[in-house]
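Q: Convert this sequence to structure tokens.
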Amino acid sequence: MKFFTKKRVVLFLLFIFPLICFLLLSLGENNFTKLPVVKENLIDVSEIDATKTVQLKENVTILCFLGNDINKTKTGLLNLNEKIYKKFIDYKKFQIVAIYPEGKEEEVKNLKEEIGAFTDMQKWNFIASSKDKIEGFYITFGLNEPLVNLYSSKAFLIDKDVNLRGRLTDKDTKDGKLYGYNMNSVAVLNGKLIDDVKVLYYEYYAAFKEKNNNKADRKEVGL
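A:
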């Protein structure tokens, strides 16, 4: 086994191993799997927002439904704030949108104060709407799980084109389809939603990079 001399092992670790890692990363960058679109062309939340100040279009959005019992939602919202919002607050066009029924303004105000005690709330958006509009908006998601008292334990990931993103081969669901992320599970937020938001942003980065490369190529040939 003279081949595996100390000198050769050192050379391998210093030069060859990093090169192999670089090649693997390059292949991964060019052939990464995009995050599946599980429902296209949702209605923009601006359609149910009387103030017309919030929209999904051109934003990466985590959206949730608070329901009639705001206290029931508190744990999930605090999880979202700690595990997702604080991690992505500096990402461009990132926002969290929380929809709640009209008449719950005081409870939501208290909730916002609690979340905002140690958080910059600039990318949190709370929208009040009527029961009929909230239910009609949720129906466009095409899910088999109905809202219960206008509440869902799931947070939904929506892309810049107002498509619902998720997973089609999720190991923890019966049919492999993941349409929303359980806000009450720190493991789900840490292990799935964080990764999926990163994949979505990498999609946009890769598309931007390719677009700029194509522009440079056209400029070189005088187009």
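The chain has one domain: 37-209.
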